Amino acid sequence: MSDLSDIRKSIRTLAGADKQNMQIFTACIKSVDWDNRNCTVTSDDGRDFTHVRLRALLDDKTGICIKPKVDSTVLVGIVEGMEQNTYIAQYTDADEVSIQMQDIDIVIDNTGKVKMKVKNLEIQADETKFNNGSDTIPFTSKIIQRLNAIENAFNTHTHPVSGTATSVPVSPMVNSTAQQIENTKIKH
Fold first, then answer.
1. Per-residue pLDDT of the chain (188 residues; tens, 9 = 90+)
2. Phi-psi region of 14 (alpha: psi -120 to 50; beta: other; left: phi over 0)
3. Domain residues of the chain, as ranges?
4. CA separation for the pair 145, 3 (Å, rounded)
5. What is 20-117's CATH number, 2.40.50, 3.30.300, 1.10.1240, 2.40.420?
């Protein structure tokens, strides 16, 4: 009986029956339904596939999801040989990437814009750059002006002491500079 079983298995292997569980083909993105996390593709042989999954599970709201660019090329996988059960396996171009898990929501679009909703953000870096590190913080000069106004008001303010004609001298404050408040490890 085991010889018959081995023969059947060999015939199935030669016929490619075991390979039907997973098939991959090249296709072009025709449209994307980002709200429902699926798309429509056209295979190289001209067949249209609708409701192609962009994430592992359609009902799952967590995980990593890539929004493919319309007219870009993708690799499409067929699960267990069922052509109505397809997913995007690889992308050549994307409009957006979304990462959602527990209390984290990160969206990166193709313009370089990043939106994050997180409880706590920790950045560990030798240097941090904002705006390519070429600009100063736009409000630094306003902070310096405000600090200097406070310091000047302090320096010119007097308190008369009863029984004397002049006020008690106060040690003057030195005006602030940008170098006193800037962190050189952060480039703006």
1. 567 677 767 776 665 555 555 589 999 999 999 999 999 999 999 999 999 999 877 677 788 999 999 999 999 999 888 888 899 999 999 999 999 888 889 999 999 888 998 888 777 877 777 666 665 565 677 778 888 888 888 877 766 667 665 665 567 777 777 777 776 666 55
2. alpha
3. 20-117, 128-187
4. 91
5. 2.40.50
